[in-house]
Hints:
- The structure is a single chain.
- The protein is about 20% helix and about 30% strand.
- The protein is an alpha+beta fold.
- The strands form 3 sheets. Strands 5, 10, 11, 12, 13, 15, 16, 18 and 19 form a 9-stranded antiparallel β-sheet that branches.
- This is Neprosin PEP catalytic domain-containing protein.
Amino acid sequence: MDLVRDVFSCTKPKSSTSHFCHVVETKLQHKCEKIISFLLHFLLVASFVSPIYSLEFSANQSFLPEEEVQKLKIVRTHLQKINKPSMKTIHSPDGDIIDCVLSHQQLAFDHPLLKDRKPLDPPERPKGHNKMGMLSENFQLWRLSGESCPEGTIPIRRTIEEDILRASSVSGFGRKLTSGVRRDTTSNGHEHAVGYVSGDEYYGAKASINVWAPIVENQYEFSLSQMWVISGSFGQDLNTIEAGWQVSPELYGDTYPRFFTYWTSDAYQATGCYNLLCSGFVQTNNKIAIGAAISPSSSYDGGQFDISLLIWKDPKHGNWWLEFGSGILVGYWPSFLFTHLGDHASMVQFGGEIVNSMSLGSHTSTQMGSGHFSQEGFAKASYFRNMQVVDWDNNLISLPNLKVLADYPNCYDIQEGVNNVWGNYIYYGGPGRNVKCP
């Protein structure tokens, strides 16, 4: 404070002819010169020090490489596109945020061919569909609190920045890598154990799948169990509709088994996505969140929990509908999304798929299904039961000429069977890396 007071006192005194005043003025000027000299020295030293602190602050707060800044801008723009305004928000115990979005504002209606349209009314169910024993809609973690979305809205799992940043690219977020779903070979590390039918016209598929929480070796791999409804060749024009459960750390940021859907009309290249992450699938249900965690799951040599799924083509409008349990409509894929599936499917598959990234230089230890081989049977191996297809006349029928294939049977295998209770069924899965699967 003395220094400040002295600086402010360094003003020129009034003129005086007094010698005494002249002496005082001279002394005061000397004092001011010393103070000013000291301040100049202080400021000179500070000028070398303060830029360092300034740059450090800037680097910590806002300085990022230009490409990172651009990527964040793209990510945030994409988030604004896919996260629609919410009428209600529900926080799930697993950390998910569920937004209740007005049905007609969901991302599907951003599609030019769906602009200003409304979700369709329920279609005619396939004949022979058993509606007894309807499974509760409370099979997902976000519903355990008793919260639900109001009528007229649909529950959508909110996508956050971290979700997109885990993906290989913004454009690749929510998409499968080109896997070339095949029944005779694999590509890009995708490995399958599936039962399938082909050689006829199929208008849908139905099965019950038991849910597990398989171990996935790293963030860039996944494990899923699903139905595929397929048409087209296995080249550039492959059309698929898919639904089941999956564990995908890259997509969801955790290892919970989650209910999912997928579609593509060009062999996973530029069209389609998981769940509601692009304009495509139209959800009509306000109690099931696609992409949300399933609870409970099955336990080895213990309780088994399965989900029933039905995909079929509406004979009247031609759209492909998804039903959960026995009577709970989830929504539909508009027929205009597809080329070959605009008419019918030429193949149906049931089974498991994993990604083997060989990250440790050997086969992955990512599990398929329960992580146990098919021969261990009920309560130990994974299964599909009551497998059926929909024929040209909208009838559910048993599987004609079911075949099975495992890409690497020493890693994951499959076997099929039939009985009066389960109809057509398969057991499948495995542990991945083991002495026979190096």
